[in-house]
Amino acid sequence: MSMIKVLIVDDHTLIRDGIVAMLSDLSEIKVLGEAVNGEEAIEKCEILNPDIVVMDIMMPKINGLEAAKIISERFSDVKIIFLSMEVKEEFISEALKAGALGYIPKDVNKKTLITAIKEVHQGNKYFHSMVSKVVFDNFYQNSVKGTKPKSLSDNKVSKRELEVLELIASGLSNSQIAEQLFISVRTVDAHRNHIMQKLELNSTAELVKYAIKNHIIELD
């Protein structure tokens, strides 16, 4: 794996220092720089050309969501992970719209942070289980009151696709699904695309909603 270049964006010095310390001893990840708000993050992206931006949401001047939209538009190769205390449905939804590929709470351990960075760098999405649970909880009430979804049999979803759908909705990344089902990441991605086409869905959030409606997954 090539060196992953990371930009850390947070308005709290202790948080930035902590993340830098977590990543400092890794040969495959290099922290290129730090920024204290969204405005500076955009400037640093242009100067440093990072692979990954690990960014908070609530910051002065330009917040993380606004900065993510601008970064995604101007620097298409830069991937964004939100590291935030705001694990709420409205923030998660806006983060996805802004182009984020990852979302993890600030109290995660070093291993989870590193996993998120590596997964997103490989082009996968990474959402912490706490984030997935928030999505489940917020969609559930709306889902059970909504219109009846298309049945799985009507859309000819295969048994393997159903397994993949269940794991996606449970918050696993493509590589984690591949490992569990003993298939390649490319195959997982193909299954994901086929599922979305057959069920006429457009996002991971809609897959989660569908899985809840059809009792493919159950909430704790």
TrEMBL record:
<dbReference type="InterPro" id="IPR039420">
    <property type="entry name" value="WalR-like"/>
</dbReference>
<keyword id="KW-0804">Transcription</keyword>
<dbReference type="InterPro" id="IPR016032">
    <property type="entry name" value="Sig_transdc_resp-reg_C-effctor"/>
</dbReference>
<keyword id="KW-0238">DNA-binding</keyword>
<dbReference type="Pfam" id="PF00196">
    <property type="entry name" value="GerE"/>
</dbReference>
<dbReference type="InterPro" id="IPR001789">
    <property type="entry name" value="Sig_transdc_resp-reg_receiver"/>
</dbReference>
<feature type="modified residue" description="4-aspartylphosphate">
    <location>
        <position position="56"/>
    </location>
</feature>
<dbReference type="InterPro" id="IPR011006">
    <property type="entry name" value="CheY-like_superfamily"/>
</dbReference>
<feature type="domain" description="HTH luxR-type">
    <location>
        <begin position="150"/>
        <end position="215"/>
    </location>
</feature>
<feature type="domain" description="Response regulatory">
    <location>
        <begin position="5"/>
        <end position="121"/>
    </location>
</feature>
<keyword id="KW-0805">Transcription regulation</keyword>
<dbReference type="InterPro" id="IPR000792">
    <property type="entry name" value="Tscrpt_reg_LuxR_C"/>
</dbReference>
<dbReference type="InterPro" id="IPR058245">
    <property type="entry name" value="NreC/VraR/RcsB-like_REC"/>
</dbReference>
<protein>
    <submittedName>
        <fullName>Response regulator transcription factor</fullName>
    </submittedName>
</protein>
<keyword id="KW-0597">Phosphoprotein</keyword>
<dbReference type="Pfam" id="PF00072">
    <property type="entry name" value="Response_reg"/>
</dbReference>
